[in-house]
Design a protein that fits this description.
The chain is α+β, with helices and mostly antiparallel strands and 118 residues long. The protein contains 3 helices and 5 strands; from the N terminus they run H-E-H-H-E-E-E-E. Keywords: Cell outer membrane, Lipoprotein, Membrane, Palmitate, Signal.
Length: 118
């Protein structure tokens, strides 16, 4: 008499347990990496600044090329979560001359067009 009830109960519990595996997704935190450069700080960078002045404003660069030490690279990547295959990447490349003066700014960080609003 208890045998069919136990069997049906086990089947019911198994069905509910297996169906719960795909319904609820666990929370995964966003994954930012690198330095996020605000427009306010980017606005402070001017041509002819020294390496130490740029480092004081933006912080130390993420990459200093071994073969070209006159180039600083700041990279920022952002993924919404670990399972997400798409991510956004921002890159700022600063080029200096032999006297350690800033001569070029490139990358996909857009330079601000006017004073930032506080």
């Amino acid at each position: 008499m208890f045998r069919p009830i136990t069997k049906n109960l086990c089947l019911l519990i198994s069905a509910f347990s297996l169906s719960a595996c795909g319904i609820i997704q666990p929370y995964t935190a966003p994954v930012p990496q690198g330095k996020e450069i605000k427009d306010k700080k980017l606005f402070e960078i001017k041509p002819n600044m020294t390496k130490s002045e740029v480092t004081y404003i933006l912080g130390s660069p993420d990459i200093i090329d071994t073969f070209n030490p006159n180039q600083y690279v700041y990279i920022n990547t952002y993924k919404r979560n670990m399972q997400d295959t798409q991510f956004s990447e921002s890159k700022l490349i600063l080029t200096f001359n032999n006297q350690d003066r800033l001569i070029g700014i490139s990358g996909n960080y857009a330079p601000p067009t006017k004073d930032p609003v506080f």
